[in-house]
Specification:
With 127 residues, this protein is α/β, with parallel strands linked by helices. The protein contains five helices and five strands.
């Protein structure tokens, strides 16, 4: 079963994403800040990370760079999930280490489509 780490400052958003992902059979860990997120991914390396860009302790772009510097995290799909994507350009997100991004509000169809595409690309790379 694939493990997904959801990082978001909003408890409501974490609960919504957890419910959607668990309904589809994923194991889900959550974090509300960078320290918890880094501890979680070190304890249970995820297959993918969905994270907000506004966190209480560090900017999301900075946390993305920190995640990419962690051993084994260079190739883990990293997805920005934010209602504020219009404040960032694609080069900022890519330079920080994000593979892709999705706007809030997020729905089950959006997550399914995104993860399906990521796993399809992963299988293509493995073959």
């Amino acid at each position: 079963m694939k493990q997904i780490l959801v990082i978001d400052d909003s408890q409501d958003e974490r609960q919504i994403m957890r419910a959607l992902l668990e309904h589809d059979g994923y194991q889900v860990a959550t974090a509300s800040d960078s320290a918890t997120a880094l501890a979680e991914l070190r304890a249970r390396p995820p297959h993918a990370i969905l994270m907000g860009l506004r966190l209480p302790d560090v900017p999301g772009l900075e946390l993305a760079r920190m995640i990419r510097d962690e051993p084994g995290m260079a190739d883990v799909p990293l997805v920005a999930v934010s209602a504020f994507l219009d404040r960032f350009d694609e080069s900022q997100l890519r330079q920080a280490g994000f593979d892709t991004w999705i706007s809030k509000p997020i729905g089950a169809g959006n997550i399914r489509q995104l993860l399906s595409a990521m796993w399809r690309d992963e299988k293509r790379l493995d073959s």
